[in-house]
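User: Could you write out the 3D structure of this protein bound to zinc ion? I've included everything you need below.
Assistant: Certainly. Input first, then the structure.
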Amino acid sequence: MRAEFPGFRLGNVLATSFTATLTERHGDAVERIPTPHRLVDWLAVNGLAVDSCTTAQLELARELRESIHAAATAAALQDALPASAVQVINDRSAQGRAAAILTPEGKRRWRLSSASRVEDALGVIAADAISVISGERDGKLALCASPTCQAAFFDTSRSRTRKWCDMNTCGNRQKKARFNAKQRRNSGSAE
Ligand SMILES: [Zn+2]
């Protein structure tokens, strides 16, 4: 599944996986849901399949994403939550009509009220953001240590000392940067 959709960072927390569809926010930002079709792809791999998405629905999704980003960042910094972001998250949550379904295998699935209801999918994401930002879930919101990223992520490690939003991207890059700096220092002192 992962290989079919390169460019999406799939985490175990829906809300912060969603905010990660805009990466390198403090560097050369990369928009990973530039078109309605890409949002449809993202929703499918996150268990919220819809059969279509309009430009207006994509706009709603992006507005929700940036609101979650703003509120989660404030929560990570223990700042007051921005009122406009809280309003958008609450609106999207209230307007979603997805139902949680228990499968015979004991898994949870989301059933949308109709296959074109992107709003239902956004409601699920908004509710997930509420559970994370409110502290209902076991974990801690933190900001990625990469200066060009600074994404809010949800740290569920036992020690709560995770530094990067994603080990495979930001974590690796930082490690490489440190390694290269060390190599430079070593070659410099040999001269
Ligand atoms: Zn990061």
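The chain has six helices and six strands.
User: Perfect, thank you.
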